[in-house]
Amino acid sequence: MTSRRWAVLGGALLLVGWQLLAIRLGSLLMATPWQTLQAMARLPFEADFRLHAGTSLLRIVLGVGLGCLLGFCLGLLAGLDARVRGLLEPLRWLLMSVPPVVVVVLAMLWVGLGSAMVVLISVLMLAPGMYVNTVKGMQMVDRGLLEMARVYRFSPWQKLRRLYIPSLTAPLGAALLIATCGGVRLVVMAEVLGAESGAGFALANARSTFDSAGLYAWTLLILLLVAALEFLLLQPLQRRMGRWQEAAHA
């Protein structure tokens, strides 16, 4: 049996387990898969659906984009200069060690509720992962190639384009996948804890009103968003980056 068939079987087992657990717990605590699908079909016709969905998407784009860009730029600087790397190491360790919920509480105190808080949390939590992968990729560049670039007097842009970027494609592709999926979770968590709109806010409302079907419908919608980002955007991007790396090394 191929891996794809095993994946289908695993999904079917999850649905069966979900159905059995929902029957045991009751509809007040857990909606069945069919009830969830019915609620999800009604979501687009609700008054605030576009507001919540659009707000969350914007926050995800800003949070993931700014976090990855900041981590990448700082990683480039740290990879080129050990002094910068040493200077940033305590901050990197701090951000990767502190629990996200602590960052949420601090961000609420610093900037209040709303999009600024959600985006700030995403940037602070996602930048360190991109930074670490960028630095590791920079350190993987062949020292012989760097010496050749010095002999032939490559400009900084030529070094970046011909040496560093091809070496960074693999670690950055993996880091971008992790950051995007993690960014969705961070945005939703921040919205649940301290936002006045967005998918997380809708989840919190469904929980407070014991709307089990609506709660699971929003959850399933978020899972579908993560799947769409991974399979339609990130995996094709990784394949393209892999071809770029092969072309650069040819």
Notes on the structure:
The structure is a single chain. The protein is mostly helical and 250 residues long. Helix 3 runs parallel beside helix 6, helix 3 packs across helix 9 and helix 9 packs antiparallel against helix 10. The two termini are 37 Å apart. InterPro entries: MetI-like (IPR000515), MetI-like_sf (IPR035906). Belongs to the binding-protein-dependent transport system permease family. It comes from Pseudomonas denitrificans.
Task: Give a topology summary.
Layout: H1 3-25, H2 33-42, H3 49-80, H4 82-97, H5 100-111, H6 115-139, H7 143-151, H8 156-194, H9 199-208, H10 212-249
Main location: membrane
Transmembrane segments: 57-79, 91-110, 116-133, 163-188, 215-234
Protein name: ABC transporter permease subunit
- Give the overall average pLDDT: 83
Counted by DSSP, the helix tally is 10
The description of the largest β-sheet is: none
**Number of E strands:** 0
Question: Terminal Cα separation, in Å?
Answer: 37 Å
Residues in helices, as a percent range: over 70%
Q: Give the ordered list of helices and strands.
A: HHHHHHHHHH
Helix-strand makeup class? mainly alpha
From the spread of the alpha carbons, the general shape counts as: globular
Unreliably modeled segments = none
Radius of gyration: 22 Å
Strand content: under 5%
